[in-house]
Amino acid sequence: MRDLKIKTNENRTPLLVTYLKNSLQCMLGGPLRDLLEKFMSIGTSLGAEYLDLRAQKIEKTEVLLKENKIEISTGILGGIGIRALVGGRWGFSSVTKLDSIESGIKEAISMARASGKKGSIDLEEVPTVEDSVTVGRKVDLDPRAVTPEEKVSVLGEMNNKLIGIQGVKAVTIEYLDVSGRQYFCNSEGSYIEEDKTYVWTKITAIGRKRDVIVTGREEIGTTSGFSEFLDKKDRAIEKLGNRIEMQLESKAPKGGEFPVVVGPELVGVLVHEALGHLAEADLTLSGSIIRPLLGKKIASSLINVYDDGTIEGAFGSFFYDDEGTPSQRTQLIKEGKLVSLMYDREHAMKFKRISEEEGIIDEFNTSPTGNARAESYSVPPIIRMSNTYVSKGDMSMEELLEGIKFGYYLVSFRGGQANLDGTFQVGVQEAYEISNGEISNPVRSVSISGNTLETLNRVEGVGEDFHLISGRCGKGQMAFVGSGGPHLKIGGILVGGA
Amino acid sequence: MPFDLSLIIRKAEKFGAKEAEAFLIRRRKMSSEIKGGEIDLSSTKLEEGVGLRVVLDKGRVGFSYSNDPSKQEELIKKSIKVARANEEDENWPSFPCCKNYRRVKNFYKEVVNMGSDEVVEMSKLMLDSAKLDERVQPFFGSSEVTYDFRELCNTQGIHVEEESTLLSLNLSTIARENGKVSPICFEYDVSRSKDVDPERVGREASEIALKCLEHSKIESGEKDVLFSQEALMMLWLFTISQGIKGDQVQRETSFLAGKIGEKVASEKVSLSDDGTLEGGVFSHSFDDEGVPCQKTEIISDGTLKGFIYDHYSARKEGKESTGNAWRGRDFFGEKLPYTSVPRVATTNLVLEKGRKSLDQLIDEIDEGVLVRSLQGAHSSDPESGSFSVVATPSFLIEKGEVKGLLRGIMLSGNAFSLLEKVRELSRETRTAYFLVAPWILFEDVRVIAKGSS
Questions:
Q1: Is residue B262 within 8 angstroms of chain A, CB to CB?
Q2: Cβ of A213 and B384 within 8 Å?
Q3: Angle at B55 between CA B3 and CA B149, to 5 degrees
């Protein structure tokens, strides 16, 4: 399929093959370390400035329950992703067989060379790490230890409970668990093993009353194991059932600009979509509206925002990112001021230079933040959020609602999207009118939109509560993330009617 | 040891399966990615794996997949284990049987033979032509070549294989001038053969972004709205293309359920699903269950004619599959086809073109909106069809002329009822992902602009 230009050292190959044969039994299961390190030296001898390798073996179970039909699938996937930096440009290759690693390394190097002459990529330094996060992690009931029969029976019960609720016409439950071990090593000497466990469920219920059809969704996601999912499922069913009943009685909203009180779930999606993506350093550099605002005030001084990959059990948590940088708690907005972006090593270096050239305030962070994540071995890591949230304030719900003559209380969302120019759109699946400071009639099919900076500046109150939810985010690759915050009062937001 | 599908299904029977179906995909992908105005990463990916469906007595189905050819026996055992956990299904029809196949032209040797230099060159050409104007930053994009080998083998006697190729280009740009920033503007090209034009992609991605530096305003209200193919694709992806699925109709979760023979759209609307369309991005000789692809009428002159089916949903109604069983069509990320069971999905959804040119359509609009793309279409409700989205980039049309960018306007309504409000279709057509369509002019679409209610 492609032309190979790299000259290889022929003498090296037989030795390697012998080595591989001896090591095959440890393919993605045993001590891969020596093998991986061997490959590092091959890569650097071929001219790579930097090389990293991620080997992964994951097991997945998926169940789709759609009314009375059940689909169950299980699978095992293994593979290796190789990234090489040559002449300031990246080359990447992925292979699924261990005996293709060497050719994979050559491919990656050759692809980097094909990209052209001197590129501008350079990596910010991070400490080399040797660590194994494979035991002692708190996983309460590994989903692999639960039989498919048990999973189906739990989901069947959930389905029956929901179907029994008045007005619920159809239910779909999607269940996914992913467990696996990842091995990371790079040419700087880092070697990391990390086990990851995700349990995720999305429940969709469709309600119908005469001509009115409404849809409600709830997601449950955890990195704490199957027990946590069992603990959370009843609450999710109850919430969804109530929502469907309420939505069937709801009326269409008015379109226009109104003051709103936004619940934690929606604050989460706003902070993720409207702010988070703009503060992913690759997108910031690509022209996001906050590019000229580094270190400056971009939000109401009531606002503090964090991206935190260290929260135990949260859906967006992990120990090391896919470049071997430890996850951390990064403050993005401090009292309204933009104090950090989310970085990988490449973009941390780019912003360090920008920060020096433009004389951005010292408080502005340009160290790698552990946000380089890859969906699987078959794709290179890109900058992704972990758990992104607004930290809590001190106002009660009554105080937030006070003084709103007419507006909306926005509780739960069904998807959102943002553009680099700062415009965002979020579909809302549960909302109520606010009249004279009180929550009143439910409204359906609302969608809100606005401009991030305007919206963040119009925050007038921050609640004293806090809640984090789980979700999936698509940026070409899928990532498990968390988001949330307290209730917020926003002076005005554009509400699109039905 | 390579994967051997005939052996896998024979062994599955030996291990207790009544029926078995093995699906293999071998995919080679080469791409050159653009980030922040330069070529950032080039890559090659090799994937090969098998998905195995087995059926025990009384329609208990199990599915398992693997990309490790040294563990084929484990794969079989796993799928049987999964089937045991499943419930009986009285509607299970058995796997499809052999049919007559017609080769669809979807493989081009010259695409397979492309070297990495050629792929990178396409990205460079896109970049260079987009950068001709210094106000434009081409910040994200890629050139991608995919080769697929698909093979399917089942115990009903089907054993088919097919090679296909696909070349796709895309580029996103932003333009900036005097503190004004355009929204993300996107242009693309896609083909089974080498017939793509990177320079055009770069040039047009740049022109649209520049056009966004001029701003216009519009009042809220019911307006004429002209959708590009891309905007229509986004709206329909989450609404119409869900509502025409046979299984959704059977569940009565489609707005179109029970409406066969009824008028559901303007007489100007004729819609079909065509898996045999020449040059179609979704054209194949057979679907992911081994059923030949075909052309299926959905709406003819405004009247609802039929739906699309996989084998299971078709047999449930005593019908034949329309060749619409596909794997791995997930909206999130990249899902390898062998890792999922087949589900009902569109092939090429073809909306018949009209007689007037795009210019004529614009010329006849007194006040309206031209929508290039949508934001937030995935929050639409697939069951009812209701949507509320940001139209970006979108432009004012005034007295037959396209004016400046409309910032942050929203459109809301119902994708199904909009079908009845089609006033005109252009004669120019274009492929946008699964949709092959003309420009489409809807009347009385609710437009919500900022600063008015």
A1: no
A2: yes
A3: 30
Inter-chain touch B117–A100, beta carbons under 8 Å: no
Whether A12-57+77-126 and A143-248 share one fold: the answer is: yes
Give B-chain residues touching A286 at CB under 8 angstroms: 35-36, 137, 139-140, 174
Between residues B45 and A445, the one the model is more confident about: B45
Whole-angstrom Cα distance, residue B24 to residue A27?
Answer: 23
The predicted structure's pLDDT at residue B333: 54
- Extents of the domains making up chain A: 12-57+77-126, 143-248, 256-496
CA dihedral B237, B238, B241, B247 (to 10 degrees): 140
Model pTM score: 0.89
| H or E segment and range at residue A345 | helix A345-358
Interface contact flag, B376 A74, Cβ < 8 Å: no
Closest CA to B33 of A52, A104, A380, A342: A380
Chain A contact present for B43, CB below 8 A = yes
Domains of chain B (ranges, CATH numbers): 5-211 (3.30.2290.10), 215-448 (no CATH)
From A344, A249, A351, select the one nearest A295 (Cα to Cα): A351
Looking only at the bridges linking them, the beta strands covering A446-451 and A423-435 are antiparallel
Longest CA–CA span in chain B (Å) reads: 73
- pLDDT tens readout for residues A41-67: 788 888 899 999 999 999 999 999 987
Is residue A120 classed as helix, strand or coil in its secondary structure?
A: coil
Helices (H), B33-115: 72-85, 109-112
Instruction: List strand residue ranges (DSSP E) for A223-324, in order.
Output: 256-262, 305-308
Give ipTM to 2 decimals: 0.87
Q: Given an 8 Å threshold on Cβ–Cβ distance, is A94 in contact with B182? A: no
What are the chain B neighbours of A255 within 8 Å (beta carbons)? 220, 410, 412, 446, 448, 453
Is A170 close to B378, i.e. CB distance below 8 A? no
On the CB side of B5, CA atoms within 13 Å amount to 26
| CATH H-level, domain A12-57+77-126: superfamily | PmbA/TldD superfamily (3.30.2290.10)
C-alpha dist (Å) from residue A95 to A82, A99, B167, B328, B347: 8, 9, 21, 20, 29
Quick one: pLDDT at residue A11?
32
CB contact burial A187-215 (16+ within 10 A = b; e otherwise): bbebbbbbbbbbbbbbbbbbbbeeeebbb
Interface size, chain A vs chain B, as Cβ–Cβ contacts under 8 Å: 287
Instruction: Work out the minimum CA distance from A175 to partner chain B, whole angstroms.
Output: 14
Quick check: A84 and A103 in contact, CB under 8 A?
A: no
In chain B, which among 175-214 make CB contacts under 8 A with chain A? 176, 181-184
Q: Is B39 in contact with A115 (Cβ distance < 8 A)?
A: yes
Instruction: Using CB atoms, pick whichever of B32, B87, B375 lies closest to residue A417.
Output: B375
Answer whether CATH 3.30.2290.10 is correct for domain A143-248.
yes
Question: pLDDT band for position A422 (50/70/90)?
Answer: confident
Q: B69 to chain A, minimum CA–CA distance in Å?
A: 9
Contacts of B48 in chain A (CB under 8 A): 96
Give per-residue pLDDT as tens, B78-108: 999 999 999 999 999 999 998 889 999 999 9
The angle formed by the CA atoms of residues B333, B336 and B340, to the nearest 5 degrees, is: 105
Whether residue B24 contacts residue B3, with contact meaning beta carbons closer than 8 Å, is answered with yes
Cβ contacts (< 8 Å) between B249 and chain A: which residues? none
Locate the chain B residue with the closest alpha carbon to A146. B85
CA A497 to chain CA centroid, Å, is 30
Q: How far is A222 from chain B (nearest CA, A)?
A: 19
Block residue for tokens 């389905």: A159
Q: How far apart are the C-alpha atoms of B375 and B358, rounded to whole Å? A: 23
